[in-house]
TrEMBL record:
This is Amino acid/amide ABC transporter ATP-binding protein 2, HAAT family. GO terms for biological process: L-amino acid transport. Belongs to the ABC transporter superfamily. Gene3D superfamilies: P-loop containing nucleotide triphosphate hydrolases (3.40.50.300). InterPro entries: AAA+_ATPase, ABC_transporter-like_ATP-bd, ABC_transporter-like_CS, BCAA_Transport_ATP-bd_LivF, P-loop_NTPase. CDD domains: ABC_TM1139_LivF_branched. Keywords: Amino-acid transport, ATP-binding, Nucleotide-binding, Transport. It comes from the Bacteria. GO terms for molecular function: ATP binding; ATP hydrolysis activity; branched-chain amino acid transmembrane transporter activity. Pfam families: ABC_tran. The keyword ATP-binding applies. Residues 9-241 form the ABC transporter domain.
Amino acid sequence: MSTPDDDFLVVEDLHAGYGGARVLHGVSLTVGRGEVCAILGPNGAGKTTLLRALCGMVKGRGAVRLGGTGLLGRPPDAVARLGVAHVPEGRGTFLPLTVEENLRLGAFTRRDRAAVQADLERVHGYFPVLRKRLKQQAGSLSGGEQQMLALGRALMLRPRLLLLDEPSLGLAPMVTRELFGIVRSINEEERTTVVVVEQNAHLALGIARQAHVLETGRIVLSGPAERIRADEQVARSYLGYRV
C-alpha cells in the first residue's frame, strides 16, 4: 500500500503542448517525497514541455498534484508559492542584475527577511564562488557560475520540488560533475524532491532513485535508476551510451 510520501508528486494522464500542437500524450508518473527522478529521452521527446507543464508555464489537461494540491490551471507564480522551483534550460539568469539581486529574486514569495538572509548564507555554503561574486553582474560570470547562480536562486525559494532542465548544458565535464554532486547533497541534506531532465543520462541516473524515458511525448520505459543504468540494451536503445 502506498503512503502519502510515495505519492508526493503525482502526474496522471497529462496532455500538453503549444497552441494546437500536442507534445505530451497521456504522461503518468509519481515521485516520492525526497526522491530524485530522472527524465530521459532524445531531443524533441517532450522532456522540457513536461517540466513547463509542472510549473505552470504550459497549459495541460489531466492531473498534477503536489502533496495532494492540484497544480494544473495555476499560473507560474502561484505554483512557485506552493514550493515549486524551476531552473530552465539555458539557466534563465537576469544578466544585467548582480549575483545578489538574482539570488534575492529567488525569494520573491517570502516575507521572512531574517530567514532569507540565513538562506543566502546557506546558498553560499553550497556555492562559495557566488559569495565572491555578489556585486558582479550575472552576465560577467562563466557558464558554470551562471548555472550555479540559477540553482542558488531556485534554492532561495526553499522549494519542496526542484525542477532542473538540462543543468549540464554547455558545461565542462568537471563542472558538470561538481554541479551534480551539489544537487545530490541538496537532496540528501534537505530532502528536497528533484525532477531532473538531462541529456547526460549516465550522470542523471547516478543521482536518481527512479527514471522515466520519454519518446514522442509518451513514457516508454520506467524503473529504478540503477537497473536502467545497468541494462546495456536499454542504454544503447534509448540513452545513447554503452554500459
